[in-house]
Each structure stands twice: as structure tokens, then as C-alpha cells.
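pls design
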């Protein structure tokens, strides 16, 4: 199969490229290192691109900005991929507030460009979109909480294991990033339901793995480990450091995507996380990191 992966030099994108390449597929990666534009030198992903070029046998890199509609249409028309995995994004709440046009154009318009290109030139190809649990905004904060020594937890049996995909995304505050991702998420669902295309939204929590170029504004565990090993200060923003993160490894995400590509459905939504057993608060993450590094 020919697999087209956007954001192919990023954490999830590069993991997907590697995973499907090992299965003997032809990989077309789309990435323009926009992360370095958003976050500076620490966010640069060219190191990961070099690794992909050196390690994958059938990998083609396309230096393309998904905001450029005609370029996206032309590329999909030529390649006609058997599956599209869309992981490219502007991923930061805080950054979005200072670059609202770029944030919306990348997250919402870029996704629309890819969906329409898929509809026109390879409508039967599964389309997997890396959405985010941030589409729920601050709605989950309205659930009654109980405080423990190192974390907050839901104080409602209904939400003991977290929220479901039916949890409302309305009447709450999202951040501009959350709003642009909601727009993309709904559009992916709509193309699935309206046009009968095999699409899905993966609402991930705290995605992690060895290929993350973590920075303060995005990449929780990667950035925390970097701060610990390099002796830098890690700044906690509110909630006493007891806010809980649902962590999932990038390889597990790639395996889930493989399952969907092999058994696609129309306009699906999946909350994608490691579950409560793999969750940790900021404070608990400090202890885990220290236990490995000894620092």
C-alpha cells in the first residue's frame, strides 16, 4: 500500500511512517518543519527526517505546507494513496493565542484541504485524523473533583474511568487551539457521514515517545525528561501540579491506526489514551522521572 502521512517528522507522524514501512508499505511523508517556526530551535524536527530517510527503505519526503490548497490537491492526485494519516498541526494552546490565523489555517483549513483532495482523488482511502481531547474544552473541569496528596480525581462514579466520546464539546471554553481542532474534528466526521468516506478522529491525550521534540508549550513528558536530565527548571502552571495526564505511547497510536485502516468505518470518533492505569499527575511524573534518572 501507499500511505501518505502529514506531519511525518513529528512524534506520531514519524512513528506511523516507521510502523507502516516495516510492514512493507510505501511511505509518502509530508512535512515542512513548521514546528521549528512555531517553537524555535528546540522544536526543529529535521533530525527525525534524516533518520527516516536513512532507515526506511521506501520513503519519499514532500516539503509541502498543507495550507497551500492547490499543492495538496496536486500531490494527492498524483500519489492517490491507499490511506491518509493526518498528524500535522499547530499543537499549542498558548501559541495559538499569538498566531490565531496560522493556528486556524493549519489545523482547520489544512485538514479541509486534505479531506477534499481525498474525496476528489481517492475517496475509498481511509482518512485518519489526529484530533485531541482538547476538543472537550474545560467541560471536564465542571465534573466534581476530589483532591489527593499528588493528584485530582473525579468524585463521580459515572466518570471513574474518564469521559466518553459522547461528552459535550459545547458551552465551554476551548482556547483558540481547541476551537481550531474542533473545526477540523467536526469536518472529518462530516466528510465521513455526508460523503460516506472512511474517516475517523483520534482524540488523544498526552502523546509521548522517543521521537518527540518537546518544548515548554507542547510535549509534556519529553520536555520534563529534558529538563531533569539537563538540570533546567520545569515550571508548573496551576492546579498545584496535581492535574492528571493520560499518557499513550506513539507506537500504540500507530497500532490503533493500523487497525482502523484494515477495518475502516465512517465518521468515527475515538478517545485515545493509555487509560487510568497509565495516567499520572505532574507531581507523580516528577517522581517517576527521578526514579529513572536518579536526579
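designed seq:
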Amino acid at each position: 500500500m501507499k500511505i501518505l502521512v502529514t506531519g511525518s517528522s513529528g512524534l506520531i507522524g514519524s512513528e506511523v511512517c516507521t510502523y507502516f514501512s516495516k510492514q512493507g508499505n510505501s511511505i509518502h511523508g509530508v512535512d515542512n518543519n513548521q514546528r521549528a517556526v512555531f517553537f524555535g530551535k528546540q522544536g526543529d524536527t529535521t533530525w527525525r527526517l534524516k533518520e527516516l530517510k536513512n532507515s526506511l527503505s521506501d520513503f519519499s519526503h514532500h516539503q509541502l505546507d498543507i495550507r497551500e490548497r492547490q499543492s495538496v490537491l496536486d500531490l494527492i492526485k498524483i500519489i492517490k494513496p491507499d490511506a491518509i494519516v493526518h498528524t500535522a498541526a499547530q499543537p499549542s494552546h498558548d501559541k495559538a493565542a499569538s498566531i490565531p490565523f496560522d493556528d486556524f489555517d493549519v489545523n482547520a483549513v489544512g485538514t479541509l484541504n486534505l479531506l477534499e483532495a481525498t474525496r476528489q482523488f481517492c475517496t475509498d482511502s481511509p482518512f485518519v485524523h489526529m484530533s485531541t481531547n482538547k476538543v472537550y474544552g474545560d467541560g471536564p473541569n465542571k465534573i466534581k473533583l476530589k483532591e489527593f496528596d499528588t493528584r485530582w480525581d473525579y468524585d463521580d462514579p459515572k466518570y471513574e474511568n474518564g469521559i466518553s466520546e459522547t461528552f459535550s464539546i459545547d458551552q465551554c471554553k476551548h482556547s483558540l487551539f481547541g476551537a481550531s481542532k474542533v473545526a477540523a474534528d467536526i469536518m472529518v466526521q462530516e466528510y465521513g457521514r455526508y460523503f460516506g468516506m472512511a474517516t475517523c478522529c483520534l482524540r488523544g491525550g498526552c502523546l509521548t515517545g522517543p521521537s518527540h521534540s518537546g518544548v515548554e508549550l507542547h510535549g509534556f513528558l519529553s520536555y520534563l525528561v529534558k529538563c531533569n536530565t539537563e538540570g533546567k527548571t520545569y515550571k508548573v502552571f496551576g492546579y498545584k501540579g496535581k492535574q492528571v495526564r493520560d499518557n499513550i505511547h506513539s507506537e500504540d497510536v500507530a497500532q490503533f491506526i493500523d487497525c482502523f485502516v484494515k477495518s475502516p468505518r465512517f465518521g468515527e470518533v475515538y478517545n485515545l489514551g493509555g487509560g487510568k492505569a497509565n495516567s499520572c499527575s505532574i507531581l507523580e511524573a516528577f517522581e517517576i522521572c527521578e526514579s529513572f534518572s536518579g536526579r
